[in-house]
Amino acid sequence: MKTKKNILTAILFIGLGLNPVYSQTIKFELPAQKGKILYLLAFKGIQQDTIFSGQINEKGGLVFTPSKDKPLSSGVMSLFIKPDIKFDFIYSDKENMTLHGEGEYIHAQNTHFHDSPENNFMLTRYMEQMQRMEKLMFLEQGMQIYKANEKLHKELKNEKAKLEKQQNAFESMLQQESSKLYAARLMVLQNLMNNYVGRLQVTSDTVEFYKIRKNVLRELDVETLYSSGMWFPVINGMLELYYKEAPFYSQFGSDMVTLLQKTQSQEAFLALTNDAATICNQYSWNIDEAALSKYLNQSGRITNPQGKLKQMLTIYKLQPGMLAPALIGADLNKKNNGTLVVFYDTGCSSCDNEINQLLGNYSVLQEKGIEVISIAADVDKTTYENTASKFPWKNKLCDFKGTGSENFINYGIMGTPTFYLIDAKGIIQGKYAKLAEILSNF
Predict the structure, then answer these.
(1) Which range of residues forms the domain containing residue 430?
(2) Total domains present in the chain
(3) Is the dihedral of CA 160, 166, 170, 171 positive or negative?
(4) What is the CATH number of the domain that holds 428?
(5) pLDDT by residue (tens digit) across 53-85?
């Protein structure tokens, strides 16, 4: 019997070895919080999703184990205990860690991590860098007090050069560790934000703009950004590169394509695609929208398009030089200079302004032989009729389905107002957000 028992035990251990348990647990030891409900939130782009909630036991303990059917990737998590405790830390899909905190409030000074190289690396290296950057700032301020030929200025300058050399070595170390540690990738991202993206709002130096863009396209890791809690400040900060007065106006779309091509995570890929499409629409960046839609069609990564993504794929087929879709409810003008198709929504301030511009310039369009067809996104018949009754042109369409109208879908309309200029052969000549853009070409 003893022999059989030993054999059975050996088989059990072999079985366990063949079927390892992937638990990646977080054990919380928070005695001052006993009896309270703890929430865990994970960053996903600009969102934070609640992934767990549980009551801390009488000894201050609680364990979180991700579901096997919903595994979590490494990223920043927020621990939240009502009413006012919020603490961010790194979750790693390769660690079974313990977070221990004794105090009534949870913060970096009274919290310790066990079996978590990620969080310990972050805490120690972050503080190391902070102290070095504070010294550099102090030295920079000190150098401004003394003249360049004074002895103390030279000593401060030498010390500053030493610290900058240390910081360069530190950043090289982060790059090397990035292949192993999410914490290192997160610090690279933070430095990219602080040293480059964050400077866009305080500089007008074209050379610096070029340097910042180069570094962003080379170093920005979209997967890390997606789970970092820094999505909005980084993406929003980057827009300074692309506004009309900026050096890279009309290159937003192609730059987003560069970042998307490097993004392996489909979840992060879709998030960036959606936000980039929204930005193109918000600022009426039609050239950028075209570059983005072309890539999405050719990438093969959008397998079940919905919402904005479906519209982006449609937009690819609606570029200048392509045949315009047939309209439901009216025919495109086959004479003279064709048709101006106007998509609008009553009550939208931009739409109302453009409609007023259109009414004021309608005679100009008539002289050019351009017929107007307006298509409303209205859902209320009275609202629509009160507005449309003032229009002097013949074709005024509305099926009261809002932006779910077939005409809106077929023309890939993501926002109003939108103008399509179509020639007498049914070929798209251009897509515009403002009537002035069209009139300026006459």
Answers:
(1) 339-439
(2) 3
(3) positive
(4) 3.40.30.10
(5) 999 999 999 999 998 888 889 999 999 999 999
